[in-house]
Inverse folding.
């Protein structure tokens, strides 16, 4: 003789609900991290730290407006900015494009 116990139904329902909740939480966390973009200030700080490892800088700037960037088949958004520093007694200007999601420098040019 088998009797159905309401407590067993509750335990199995609770386990299923907890599993669905955990899976939803993990999926939401991954989705939010993939959609997150760095602020222009954070990107500029990353670039400045990279330049400071080679020596002092005189100034820096960044454009807060994102601009679309296309390199062959790759589409992304980028911030444009610049760093100035003294090199061999002259002011050197570096202009860069940095990815808005990772802060990676995508392009950099130097002018005197």
């Amino acid at each position: 003789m088998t009797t159905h116990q309401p407590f067993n139904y509750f335990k199995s329902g609770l386990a299923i609900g907890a599993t669905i909740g955990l899976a939803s939480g993990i999926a939401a966390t991954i989705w939010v991290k993939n959609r997150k973009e760095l602020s222009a200030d954070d990107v500029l700080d990353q670039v400045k730290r990279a330049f400071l490892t080679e020596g002092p800088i005189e100034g820096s700037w960044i454009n807060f407006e994102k601009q679309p960037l296309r390199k062959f088949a790759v589409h992304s958004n980028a911030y444009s900015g610049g760093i100035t520093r003294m090199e061999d007694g002259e002011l050197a200007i570096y202009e860069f494009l940095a990815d808005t999601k990772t802060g990676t420098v995508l392009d950099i040019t130097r002018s005197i």
